[in-house]
Amino acid sequence: MKKIIPPLAVITAALLWSFDGFLRQELHSVSSFLIITIEHAIGALLFLPFLIKGWGDIKKMNQRGWVSVLWISICGGILGTFFYTKALSYIDYINLSVVVLLQKFQPFFAIALASIILKEPITKRFLSLAGLAMVGGYLVTFGNNSIAQWNDKMIIAALLALLAAFSWGSSTVLGKHALNRLSFTVVTALRLALTAAVAGIVLLYTQGNVTDIQLSGSQWKALLIIVFSTGSVALFIYYYGLQRLPASHTAIYELFWPISALIFDWVIREKSLVPIQFLGATILLGSIMMLTREKTTYG
Fold this sequence. Notes:
Layout: H1 5-24, H2 32-46, H3 48-53, H4 55-59, H5 63-88, H6 96-99, H7 102-117, H8 124-142, H9 152-179, H10 184-207, H11 217-227, H12 232-243, H13 247-253, H14 256-269, H15 275-291
């Protein structure tokens, strides 16, 4: 059971994130930095007790530790969310599944960086399973379509998704680096606080008088739901799993995102899956299940 819980934590976070796109569509007309600032500020308040409790450990962090925390706060918390939110703004032109393209390329960045930065061993069996997962993820996302059939809106969304993929993929690795020094509760609280602070500064610099910005009741409701489900709470669950898993393996477990996103797209927006997408889902799930049998260390 102890061996199963960490992967389940990452998978649970991925399932929550797959619903995130639907929640953020309500916020398509709101400034991305305003969303990031409010979302992370509320999350920082929610996890403030953990930040206070772990302050002694935070003060002992060395320079490399701070670089890791700042990286995940800025790249993971701000840039990744910004690029992802901007990609979602093209949802009227493309299928939601194209936006979750980022989850198919994020593991490439994470696996490569985990090998370079964290010196995690990458076995041939793992690379084979990762390759299968990539193929399955591609089929799940694109179905019978090909890149040659993309229009300009799809290309822009794909580029934004790739930028988000790098931001989040690198943050998985640097997040693991930070978790080697701090508990997952402290890392979650510190990341949320730093992201809120940096995003707030950017917002003040770009927007000027933020008191003029108004959100509707439905937009506030969407923000609160995000914080307590797909946002801060999902991040908390994710870091629990990441602390007990290799970063390279964690990136593969996150591939549950595209499968569940397509299911939600089918149920909520009534966009059915084609047979090749079911084939991709089978390949993806099979490779992930085989990956769980890889020898690894759990804390």
